[in-house]
Amino acid sequence: MAANLVKHQNQHGLTLVEVLVATTILSMVVLAVANVLITGRLANYSAKQKSVAINLAQGKMEEILAQEITSPQPPQAGSFNDMPGYKYTYYIEDYKIDANSFWAIHVTVYYDHNGKPQNEVYLFTLKRKG
């Protein structure tokens, strides 16, 4: 009987329970890391879409500012030929501060984000008349 005890004590290895516990812990860690990676990827995609919308809005604003403005303009809509999924509207109105007259220029770019329609970026600036 003593020989059997010595024989079992010299054996090395893991029991089935130890293997199952280790596998469970490893699986939980892998799932947590995967969740962080997926969330980061979605956030990156969202930031990219918003960055594109901001750049398009700035470009449209610069295009309007480069033109000579002689009168207010009602809302006008359009799309960007090279950027499907992005649309814009803009309008120009009179704006007075004390004795100074300006044109108020409003530009809004709309875009779809993760299947949700019509997220937007809005820019506003003033241009001195004359």
The span between the termini is 108 Å
Count of β-strands: 4
Please state roughly what percent of the residues sit in beta strands, choosing from under 5%, 5-15%, 15-25%, 25-35%, 35-45% or over 45%: 35-45%
Largest sheet: 4 strands, antiparallel
**Tally of structural domains:** 1
How do the SSEs run, as a string of H and E?
HHEEEE
SS element count, helices:
2
Q: Report the structural category.
A: alpha+beta
Radius of gyration from the alpha-carbon trace, in angstroms:
31 Å
Global outline: rod-shaped
Mean of residue pLDDT values: 88
Q: Major sheet: order of its strands?
A: 1-2-3-4
- The share of residues in helices is 40-55%
| Poorly predicted ranges | none
InterPro entries: N_methyl_site
Protein name: Prepilin-type N-terminal cleavage/methylation domain-containing protein
Keywords: Membrane, Transmembrane, Transmembrane helix
Organism: Desulfotomaculum nigrificans (strain DSM 14880 / VKM B-2319 / CO-1-SRB)
